[in-house]
Amino acid sequence: MRDGNAVSFKRSIMVETTPFDEMYNPDGSVREPYRALAGWLAEQPDKALALMQADAEAIFRKLGITFAVYGSEEGTEKVIPFDVIPRIIAANEWRKLSKGIEQRVKALNAFLYDIYHRQEILKAGRVPEKLILNNAAFCPQMMGLDPAKGVYAHIIGVDIVRVGPDEFYVLEDNLRTPSGVSYMLEDREAMMLLAPDLFHRSKVAPVETYPENLRRTLESVAPDGFKGRSPNIAVLTPGIYNSAYFEHSFLADQMGAQLCEGPDLFVDGGKVYMRTTTGPEQVDVIYRRIDDDFLDPLTFRPDSMLGVPGLFDAYRAGNVTLVNAPGTGIADDKAVYTYVPDIIEFYLGEKALLQNVPTYNCTDPDQRAWVLENIADLVVKEVHGSGGYGMMVGPTASEEMHAEFRRKIEARPDNYIVQPTLNLSTCPTHINGDVAPRHVDLRPYVLVGDEVRITPGGLTRVALKKGSLVVNSSQGGGTKDTWVLED
């Protein structure tokens, strides 16, 4: 936030109030979207939810739905925690959210095109030039490059939090390689298997069309030149030791695409080929799940063993499409995030339908001084951090942690953003045989190609620890099936 409104926002939203309960009204009555679920829960015999929970864990373990915990002494692979009580969103609530999400992704793609071409928004002073051109996520090699159909970010995850009946905020945008969609799909599969009777009581919008829509989107941005055949799609993975490898394999299988590592691909004559048992096969679209720096050792990091030599030249020549495009990270940088309402207004001529969480700019001396004094009430995030790492939630952190982050902000004020501690909404969650409220967020998934496709709902992440606001699986969080009710 670039003015004094941040302080007034803190006072209005950080007061000690009971968090918004998505299932119950303040008088204890059940909110309309949850009435069928409330009736179903009341009918469940003792230990029924515990048995469902155990069955769900067995299903996930059998399927290999795991995530890696780097640095954990308990082992590197864990089954993703799953809660059997779904999170429910009313049809009218989803309409509001989806309109705001579509507006946001259109503006961010327009921003990326501008940043790598005429940079009109920088010339207009709406976004600081230094913030973009000196940013580690800015990719100079993309300057002047026109991606297929003008789309830079084809697959986007928008993290949304709720603090009231009609109060939603965008927490961050994920335009590089957003993960978690496989959990969304497997959560739905598990719920349909474990609680088919509950589905009969509600009309729930489907999510299982995501892989088909993903393939349609990827095919729509394929370069010309594959006449007489369907575009060949490859999912480029760093390999089995990556924390999201299950998802890479899952999506490739669901789409009917090839799962490849860097050595499986090569460039010849400016085109990308895949090694197969029947000889080389040209690849038209690469859904890459590796970071920019490792894509091509001839253009980016020369020590990369994960990428494909010559890949970027083939991309510049228009012979292959990379999804998402290199350099998209500049649009989900946490410092750039604070300017997204301005970005929407600049490119679309509209006010943002979904609001940002007001954010303190630590490079401003007055705001930095206020942040350092009140750090115990605030959330501090590294600009390039992810997965819950490199962040501090002030109210639940120790005094030693407060002191450590004060030192970090004083040393590198440009490396951190600071936000109020939002009182995230809660949903009923099965905890040790009981049902209790736990804080949640939401990551809807958006596909951008020949059209914008938004999957109804998305991935709900839940903080399984009582009072915790950190929902990341790497930090003790789990997932829920997300139901969007149809009219």
Characterization of the model:
The chain is of the alpha+beta class and 487 residues long. Helix content is 31%, strand content 22%. The protein has helices spanning 5-13, 35-43, 48-63, 91-115, 120-123, 129-133, 181-194, 196-199, 210-220, 245-255, 311-316, 334-337, 340-348, 365-373, 399-411; strands at 66-68, 77-79, 82-89, 155-164, 167-174, 233-236, 258-260, 265-268, 271-274, 281-282, 285-288, 321-323, 355-356, 360-361, 378-382, 391-393, 416-420, 426-431, 434-443, 445-448, 452-454, 459-463, 477-484. Strand 9 (271-274) and strand 10 form a beta hairpin. Helix 3 packs across helix 7 and helix 4 (91-115) packs across helix 13. The model is unreliable at 1-16 (pLDDT under 50).
Sum this structure up briefly.
The chain has 487 residues and is of the alpha+beta class. The protein is built from 15 helices and 23 strands.
Q: How do the strands and helices of this protein lay out in sequence?
A:
Layout lengths: L4 H9 L21 H9 L4 H16 L2 E3 L8 E3 L2 E8 L1 H25 L4 H4 L5 H5 L21 E10 L2 E8 L6 H14 L1 H4 L10 H11 L12 E4 L8 H11 L2 E3 L4 E4 L2 E4 L6 E2 L2 E4 L22 H6 L4 E3 L10 H4 L2 H9 L6 E2 L3 E2 L3 H9 L4 E5 L8 E3 L5 H13 L4 E5 L5 E6 L2 E10 L1 E4 L3 E3 L4 E5 L13 E8 L3
Helix pairs in contact: 3-7, 4-13
Give the tags.
487 residues; five-stranded mixed β-sheet; 23 strands; 31% helix
Oligomer: single chain
Which whole number gives the mean pLDDT?
90
Share of β-strand residues? 15-25%
The main sheet comes to:
5 strands, mixed
Q: Determine the number of helices (DSSP H or I, runs of at least 4 residues).
A: 15
How much helix, percentage-wise, in residues?
Answer: 25-40%
Global geometry: globular
Straight-line distance between termini = 37 Å
Using the CA coordinates, give the radius of gyration.
23 Å
Low-confidence stretches: 1-16
Strand order of the largest sheet: 3-23-22-19-18
